[in-house]
Amino acid sequence: MKLITAVVNKDDSMSVQSGLTSRGFQITRIATTGGFLLSGNVTFLIGVGDDLVDEVIGIISELSSQRRQLVPPVSAYGSGVETAYPIEVVAGGATVFVQDVERFEKV
């Protein structure tokens, strides 16, 4: 058994959640905040059998996308570096971790 932890941009989170649950996967949804852009994310915890890992990652990959967006100057985040113009960065997509589960119980 595996535990999949997927950090998904909040803009994609409802699509990912619907995609996973409509295919019968049980998920736990946790609201989280990213450190780089201080933007909202959703972290999904999904327990699955070893044979379903690729299917789950495929659904997440299909329904979350990277996109370019403008962010305020870095000085707005308190780093002390100043720039006059917004900076274009790549945001969105998902970060996925897969871990072995030694024991699972539903009580």
Distance between the termini: 17 Å
Radius of gyration: 17 Å
* Main beta-sheet annotation: 4 strands, antiparallel
State the share of residues found in helices, binned by percent.
10-25%
The count of helical stretches stands at: 2
Overall number of domains: 1
What is the mean predicted local confidence, pLDDT? 85
Report the order of strands and helices: EHEEHEEE
| Total strands | 6
Q: What is the CATH architecture assignment?
A: 2-Layer Sandwich
Task: Describe the protein in words.
With 107 residues, the protein is α+β, with helices and mostly antiparallel strands. It has one domain (2-100): Alpha-Beta Plaits (2-Layer Sandwich). It is built from two helices and six strands. It has a four-stranded antiparallel sheet. Strand 2 (27-33) and strand 3 (40-48) form a beta hairpin. The longest helix is centred in the first third of the chain and has 13 residues, at 10-22. It is elongated, with a radius of gyration of 17 Å. 16% of the residues are buried.
